[in-house]
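During the reporting period the student researcher (J.K.) took over the structure-prediction task from the postdoctoral fellow and processed the backlog of single-chain submissions. One of the processed entries is reproduced below for the supervisory committee.
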Amino acid sequence: MADIMPRATGDTATLPPIMVGTSAAIREVLVLADRAAAGQATVLLTGESGTGKDLIARYIHARSSRAARPFVTVNCAVVKDPLLESECFGHIKGSFVGAQRDAVGKLELADTGAILIDEISCASMRMQVRLLEFLETGEVQPLGASGPPRRVDVRLIAATNANLTLLAHSGVFREDLLYRLRVAHIHLPALRDRPDDVAALVAHTIQKTGRAVRFSDQALALLAGYHWPGNVRELQTTVEQLVWMAGVSVIDVQHLPAPFRTPGLRVVSMVERRRQLADDLYAGVIARTISFWGELYPLFLSRDVTRHDLREVLRRGLRTTSGSYRALIPLFGMEPHDYKRLLNFLAAHDCNVDPRPFRKRTAGTADRGSFTMAMLENPRKAPSESSVERPSAES
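J.K. obtained the following structure tokens:
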């Protein structure tokens, strides 16, 4: 939920490990990070999951004039409102159900230091407003408090794997908050875009294990050519598994998992992974542990979830609702007014799924389908529901 880097003493603060690699892309990241560390501006870190945004945030703090002061983290994808608001701003006893005692917020704990707001795209509109107010005033007012707010001196670093510009244009993220956040913007490249760094990352990971193991040149070449959807985090896990389980001093091609050795099997593995991802996303959405608009939508815009993945989630839902898009709204935990928003979104991003194969053939099925398909093909020119003759059960 939250992590606090303790205060350091004097000039002996230990720097967090910097990004490993010598590619032009990672050198540019470190140049920008050093520039950000030299100032006090708000920083926005963007990039896919596993690219090292938390690492760079800690690097910036450790290189800054605030290095000896607290560094606090909060993850918006883990903590939900009203707990997220309480986590950041604190609360007084009785301000909400479960608030049995006063609590100091992370912004106050980070006073004179810095705070990392991770996965900020998952913050609710209310939370976004409160963060915007904080950036404008520097004041903290705990939930339920009636007294004067407290002024704190905190540097804010935000991180996200979503495209906040697209979210702002779609009304999911406040545009004014985005402007406040990206005074200093650093984008972390995906590992597949810096294959020259793979060998250095492998060596760094082996060194951390303390084992006398190395990879052959042929094995390293295959690792460098892999697409690494989980980025550096996936590489570290893969290397650690091989180091501990291979039982040899030189890890060669035959020791690598099949997807690395055989392109055909790699494709099969990717297909299985995408299928499992769709299953997990669908299960999370209908269980209300994943918000369609708050989490799945940003993941789609950031390309962590592909158009194919989203269609597969929709297919699972349409199979459950017998082809009814309207019934998807409560199934996915949406509000009734989200119906047209969903159809517009699917049409705009070419994520349409034909609902007809999932419907039971009854009288009037074609009529019911005409409205939904028209909306999916062109929501602005679709016929009104009243103009389509159909039974009372709507699609």
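The committee noted the following: The chain has three domains: 2-189, 200-261, 265-387.
J.K. will present the remaining backlog at the next meeting.
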